[in-house]
Predict the structure.
Amino acid sequence: MPDNSVTSQGALGAKKHADSADNADILHAEHPPYLRHHFNSTEQQADAASFAMWLFLLTEVMFFGGLFTAYLIYRNWYYPAFVAGSHQLNVVWGATNTVVLIFSSFTMAMGVWCAETRRRKGLVLCLTLTFILGLCFLGIKTIEYREKIEMHHVPGFHYSLQSFLDPASNPEVFKEYHDKPLALDMARHTEIYFSLYFLMTGMHALHMIIGIGILGFMIFRARAGAYTAGHVTFVENFGLYWHFVDIVWIYLFALLYLISRHQ
Amino acid sequence: MSEPHEHAHHIVGPGVYVAILFALLIGTALTVWASFLELGLWNPVIALAIATCKATLVVLFFMGVKYSKKLTKLTIFSGIFMFLVLISMTLSDYISRAWGSW
């Protein structure tokens, strides 16, 4: 198709040419600037982008799935150690963080709606709230990590078995669970619990940090009206990513904090 | 190009999102409450069942899969099915072996 010559000939020539060719829709002036030339329509372009995002998220499912599987296998093997390790976590912080992430997913979903309905101020507000809630999550996670460092529950040279060989030495946890002392070999396996705890929550936190970075970039661009002029693919796909990270936490909260409370 | 194509993009409204928000908060309260009960083997089962319900709500409504194309739905379903095959076969192998004294 002599596309370039058509546009350079001016409107009249272009119209005449297009009418004769009966394919006016391929004219450059008649499609939105964000439509790439290898797509037939904006719908097709949006579908392709969303499909690709889901393929990426499925690789993420497999990645976190491997960690979950490792956790379940080790929990099955060293069950008393995993129960004692889990009792060291604070359910209140875990539940608070779950609520924070659910609210951030809600504000992100509202942000996507604002972009789709072309509400620039609403979009900036929603993205900013999501950004702040993401930081809240990381702040609470930092408090929890700090507690683990102080208790010497971070795997490595300074790891301490005291909470597991002598549970009464940690009165706050002991008055709630009344754990019995573990034998030395089982107590040492609590280090595996905390290795997996830090690996899983750490990988999740890394995803949060990446997401918060992208959110900062999006707030900057949304203020300039980038996502409220019809092209919402970036906001929608980021929303998918953010909700996925929320889902991972929903499972992490259940597996790490909840399922071993009463054994 | 003029053939009528299906509504490619369904916009989910704030009402649905607010309803899902409350459902997720209730689910969180429920799962924390259930973890205080002494249910033995059922504790992890209930916790994971509630987590799966919450995840399903997020996928269907926040991620809009309920309103997406068949191709997307089928891809997600097959991906998750594959994941379940991998995890269940791995776990059944580890659990059913005669490990003896390790």
